[in-house]
């Protein structure tokens, strides 16, 4: 049994680098007084979020990953993929919910639809490389 092709969308990894730099920069502050140790948790949480958060899509479902936890949405629940006013991709579901897809921009929608294995609407059936 072969593993289905998965398309992964993640935030820019520069966020992770910035969080690591912020963590190193906060070390002297946290070492100054014991009550300042929780300051280190902020860049640590940002680093974990930057490493983990995003959207994974394959032919079966969407997986929306956050700092903690994930949400799985089957393609049969998705009525429409669109963009919001800020250019982020959103999925409109059959129960009326509108879910923002983490790390997916409007320009990424063709790649997202291609992950379903379905042809793009309006695309010629014999297009090369499709």
UniProtKB/TrEMBL annotation:
<protein>
    <submittedName>
        <fullName>PH domain-containing protein</fullName>
    </submittedName>
</protein>
<feature type="transmembrane region" description="Helical">
    <location>
        <begin position="35"/>
        <end position="54"/>
    </location>
</feature>
<dbReference type="Pfam" id="PF10756">
    <property type="entry name" value="bPH_6"/>
</dbReference>
<dbReference type="InterPro" id="IPR019692">
    <property type="entry name" value="CFP-6_PH"/>
</dbReference>
<feature type="transmembrane region" description="Helical">
    <location>
        <begin position="12"/>
        <end position="29"/>
    </location>
</feature>
<keyword id="KW-0472">Membrane</keyword>
<keyword id="KW-0812">Transmembrane</keyword>
<keyword id="KW-1133">Transmembrane helix</keyword>
<feature type="domain" description="Low molecular weight protein antigen 6 PH">
    <location>
        <begin position="52"/>
        <end position="122"/>
    </location>
</feature>
